[in-house]
# Entry
Amino acid sequence: MELEPEACYRALRTRDARFDGRFFTAVRSTGIYCRPVCPARTPKRDNCLFVPCAAAAEAAGFRPCRRCRPEAAPGSAAWLGTSATVNRALRLIADGALDRGGVADLAARLGVGERHLRRLFLRHLGASPLAIAQTRRAHFAAKLLAETGWPMSRVAFAAGYTSVRRFNEGVKQTFHCPPKDLRNRRGGAGDADPLAIRVGARAPFDFAALTRYLAARAVPGVETIGDGVVRRALRLDDQAVVVEVRASGSADELSVRVRGGDATAWLRVTERVRVVFDLGADPGEIARVLDADPALRARREVLPGVRVPGAWEPFELAARIVLGQQVTVAGATRLAGRIAERFGDPLPNDLRTCEAGPQRLFPTPEVLADAPLESLGLTRRRAGALRHLAAAVADGRVDLAPGADPAATRDALLALPGIGPWTADLVLMRGLNQPDAFPAGDLGLRRVLECDGTELERRSERWRPWRAYAAMLLWNVPTIPRASREGHRHPSSSAPGGSTCPTTLTTR
# Structure
């Protein structure tokens, strides 16, 4: 991916945190690459090479800076400006596709040839798929070395290495020193929580607002949210784990703990946390586009760190959206809880630490495909729609996995009985993390902006490619505060009377 060197250098000189993770600076005179926020002295322009991702810098022979820690950069520019195929491949790599198979298998899942996939990666990222995966493992290992006091063997397997020998080789190749030396230089675990790791986000990041949104939709028995802590039961292949997420001491970091599973669960859980809390979002770039609309600008001032929450398990979210058709959030939540109670697998005793915590896993698509859902209070039509969805996911007709083709998934969803554009677009928006997915048929959005569907579609064109964030703003800030209305007068910038959201709004 081409980067404008002069623009990057100007951004580097400002050390503006909004550029953190969007590019990296490789310094020819030192052989080191850094984040734009690195506190080291700004290098001379002639010595700087700008690359879109850490793997590209390492492929060119540079090693990570030990002051700014590139592996701790929030998000990655690798997700910006890439082709759809590369973007899907990156999602699969983040989910461990190259931990369980090779590049040929990855290319087959994407429907392209292996050579073509390599060419796409080199064109857009300057590094091969394997180099991306190797950098991912090495950087995660560096985080664990810096933030925990775990033994080397546990760090190795948690980072996705198959042996301690490969771990030693991978870290030494990336950081130009052995893991033990790297831990000594960084001070080991220090004052960090030895049972947790930290995951960064770009500021502004409103963890409290996110947890309020998620708490109203938490499936009883599967997820509990309270006192600023999210606890979630999660299935990773055949393993059951409980994930705990809370705000850390920093305003733009989360602290993550994992109980259960083997050491390899940590890397996958961390990626899942990034998805659920939308940690890769760039609020500055999103604001630049959305602020062109006065109604959105006024709402963004109320919720500056807007995020689009993702899914712990995409099928569960899709089922939850089907249950939420034409009912309230509370009603859909109760139905989801009954389904989990009746058909979900209980957690092992050692993971059920208290009655208030998660107790079970949400049922799999295979289980719900033939489940008698009417006995739980679902209408015959809603139960049928949910069974059809479960059967389609189970037999592969609907792909909800990371990296799925959003257009193909949407078409497959629309082919199912009981699923229309509103449901399909919400699944893409939150289940597949598509930033431009937009449920234009949503009655709540029309009411907030006082327009019909055609006008909403036309108006939303100016919000691309961040229409999902626009929808979240309109749902979460349905009315504009008086001060903002006075400063941003616009014929469509005020919501209908009253501060209560319409029923359709509350089903998100």
User: Anything to note?
Assistant: Residues 84 and 405 are 8 Å apart (CA to CA). The beta strands are 24-27, 32-34, 48-51, 63-64, 197-200, 223-226, 229-236, 239-247, 253-259. Residues 187-191, 486-508 have pLDDT under 50 and may be disordered. The two ends are 36 Å apart (CA to CA).
